[in-house]
Amino acid sequence: MKKVIIVGIAVFVAAAFISVEPAFAGPGGKIASAAFETFWGRVIVGVLTIIFLPLITYVLLLEKLSERRARKDMRFMAAYTRLLHKFAVLEVKRRAP
Q1: Among 93, 87, 65, 83, CA closest to 75
Q2: How many other β-carbons are positioned within 10 Å of the β-carbon of residue 15?
Q3: pLDDT tens across 21-59, in order?
Q4: At what angle do helices 85-95 and 39-78 cross, to 10 degrees?
């Protein structure tokens, strides 16, 4: 009996995810338009922006630093292997004005 209930719940959840209308959640959909048209929607979006802006900024900064470190490591390794020679050439071209 438990297996039947678990399978039923799994089927229901899968059907719910499959049948979701993209117009409700997509850009310009009903959810987005309702959030920006009502006063409380604007307040909630503003509060969420204030809460998550430091996190978004932190993640973007980490990604930029990681990219810079990876490029530095790739330039270093390009001196030791021919497989990365293309990367060294591309870096030189990118820096050229």
Answers
A1: 87
A2: 10
A3: 555 555 666 666 767 778 888 888 889 889 999 999 999
A4: 120
| pLDDT value, residue 69 | 93
| Cβ burial, residue 36 (10 Å; 0-12/13-18/19+) | exposed
Measured in residues, the chain has a length of: 97
Local structure of 38: helix, strand or coil: coil
Contact predicate 88/78, CB 8 Å: yes
Contact 52, 58 (CB under 8 A): no
Map tokens 């009502």 to a residue: 38
Encoding tokens for residue 55? 């996190």
79: tokens are 């001196």
75: Cβ contacts below 8 Å, ≥ 6 apart: 87, 88, 91
